[in-house]
């Protein structure tokens, strides 16, 4: 007999290339056609634009957990798809300062209401944007492409950023080391 936890751990080992973690996210939207808008929220630490996301929750399906994240982070109620529209990778900063590659399953959520009070109110900035604005505001190229595909829009040629993959944990560590060595070298030469 396999427990739920056993299935989850087995899925992480075999389905994700060993060691990658999975999160769930809601892609909040409202309106249609030219009036279509995507809601982005700021992350708490880096203040960059993201969609509401978090870790899977015990006793909740992935889509239910994504809807819960939308409620907690942005005060959103709505109708969420039960099948992910896509996924994207990003580097999650850990409390230790290290970074871990995480894959996020994205569930579109048609927003039907916004609450005035929610758990993370005041910790994040919320902004409704056109699909093009939202795509250009996020840092992860794969999330940008997912927003564009979901909305059925194309980015103007001059505004299409290079599709550089998210940096690997090793590259982040090397960049951090390079900055430290450069700072120390500057002190040494004074």
Structural description of this entry:
With 190 residues, this protein is of the alpha+beta class. The protein has a single domain (4-189), classed as Nucleoside Triphosphate Pyrophosphohydrolase. It is built from five helices and eight strands. It has helices at residues 4-15, 62-74, 131-137, 141-151, 169-189, and strands spanning 21-30, 37-42, 49-50, 53-54, 76-80, 86-93, 99-114, 126-129. Strands 1, 2, 3, 4, 5, 6, 7 and 8 form an eight-stranded mixed β-sheet that branches. A hairpin with a 6-residue loop joins strand 2 and strand 3. The radius of gyration is 18 Å and the shape is globular.
Radius of gyration: 18 Å
Order of helices and strands: HEEEEHEEEEHHH
The helix tally amounts to 5
Q: Can you identify the CATH superfamily?
A: Nucleoside Triphosphate Pyrophosphohydrolase
**Overall number of strands:** 8
| CATH architectural label | Alpha-Beta Complex
Largest sheet: 8 strands, mixed
- CATH fold type: Nucleoside Triphosphate Pyrophosphohydrolase
Percent range of helical residues: 25-40%
Rough shape? globular
Number of domains: 1
What are the salient characteristics of this protein?
eight-stranded mixed sheet, 190 residues, 5 helices, alpha+beta, 8 strands, Nucleoside Triphosphate Pyrophosphohydrolase, single chain
Write the layout of secondary structure elements.
Layout: H1 4-15, E1 21-30, E2 37-42, E3 49-50, E4 53-54, H2 62-74, E5 76-80, E6 86-93, E7 99-114, E8 126-129, H3 131-137, H4 141-151, H5 169-189
Parallel strand pairs: 1-7
Antiparallel strand pairs: 1-2, 1-4, 2-3, 2-8, 5-7, 6-7
């Amino acid at each position: 007999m396999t427990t739920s936890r056993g299935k989850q751990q087995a899925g992480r080992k075999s389905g994700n290339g060993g060691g990658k973690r999975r999160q769930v996210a809601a892609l909040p939207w409202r309106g249609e056609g030219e009036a279509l808008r995507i809601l982005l929220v700021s992350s708490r630490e880096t203040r960059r634009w993201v969609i509401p996301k978090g870790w899977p929750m015990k006793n909740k399906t992935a889509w239910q957990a994504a809807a819960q994240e939308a409620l907690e982070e942005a005060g959103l109620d709505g109708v969420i798809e039960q099948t992910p529209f896509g996924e994207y990778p990003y580097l999650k900063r850990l409390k230790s300062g290290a970074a871990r590659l995480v894959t996020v399953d994205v569930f579109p959520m048609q927003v039907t209401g916004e609450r005035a009070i929610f758990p993370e109110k005041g910790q994040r900035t919320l902004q409704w944007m056109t699909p093009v604005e939202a795509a250009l505001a996020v840092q992860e190229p794969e999330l940008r492409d997912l927003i564009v595909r979901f909305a059925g829009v194309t980015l103007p040629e001059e505004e299409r950023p290079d599709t550089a993959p998210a940096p690997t944990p090793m590259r982040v560590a090397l960049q951090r080391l390079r900055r430290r060595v450069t700072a120390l070298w500057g002190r040494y030469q004074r």
